[in-house]
Amino acid sequence: MIHGELHEYTTAEVARHASTDDCWIILGEDGKQKVYDITAFLESHPGGPEVLLDLAGQDAQEEFKEVGHSKAAQDMVEQLVIGRLRTDGRRKPVKKGRVILPLAADDAADRKLGLRDTRLIGLMGLTMAVLFAYLLAPDV
Ligand code: HEM
Fold first, then answer.
1. Is residue 91 part of a domain?
2. Are strands 34-37 and 81-85 parallel, antiparallel or unpaired?
3. Assigned domain for 115 exists
4. Where does the Cytochrome b5 heme-binding domain lie (predicted)?
């Protein structure tokens, strides 16, 4: 298929194809993403159908790269292309269940630490005040 003639799909359209009998994914670098119908390939995927179904209807580029797929796998992908992703200049939508969680947990830990620090500083100030009051108090 000639690249220029590929049909354009939106992320919303791709997202509607997310089941075992109708499964699309998005692959490719930002701005050059393509849409793939992987329904017929699910069962023959050497990595199993589950990993693909988890990403059904979504952008799977990051995960595809992380696995370090062979050149043969990358060539295989191109047999399944059905169109291009419509790019509207916006950032990619954040996917559900991404690595955002540990970061959020870190944030929470930071906030907790901040609160504890504030309390500690307050307590130190109070101790100093009492100490000074005691030291500076006129002798009886
Ligand atoms: C249409 C897209 C895909 C094609 C054509 C494809 C093809 C292949 C092929 C041919 C292999 C065998 C190893 C290799 O040659 O690299 C493989 C393994 C694997 N793939 Fe995919 N894959 C696709 C998408 C994905 C995605 C999105 C994931 C998401 C995590 C994934 C996860 C894996 C895993 C975990 C293995 C097993 C690696 C191993 O056992 O060493 N694949 N895939």
1. no
2. antiparallel
3. no
4. 6-86
Q: Rounded CA gap, 130 and 20, in Å?
A: 71
Q: Which of 34, 35, 43, 45 to mutate to test the pocket of ligand 1 (most atoms within 8 A of CB)?
A: 45
Model confidence at 131: pLDDT above 60: yes
Which residue has the least CA distance to atom 36 on ligand 1?
Answer: 47
- Return the structure tokens found at 137: 């108090």
* Full domain range(s) for residue 62: 7-85
Q: Out of 36-40, 83-87, 103-107, pick the least confident.
A: 103-107
The confidence score (pLDDT) of residue 100 equals 45
- For the chain, the maximum distance between any two Cα atoms, rounded to a whole number of angstroms, is 99
ipTM above 0.90, yes or no: yes
Q: 10 Å Cβ neighbour count for 130?
A: 10
- List the beta bridge partners of residue 22: 19
What's the pLDDT tens digit per position in 71-85? 999 999 999 999 999
pLDDT-derived band at 53 (thresholds 50, 70, 90) equals very high
Q: What are phi and psi of 77, to 5 degrees?
A: -55, -45
How many angstroms separate the CA atoms of 45 and 85, rounded? 23
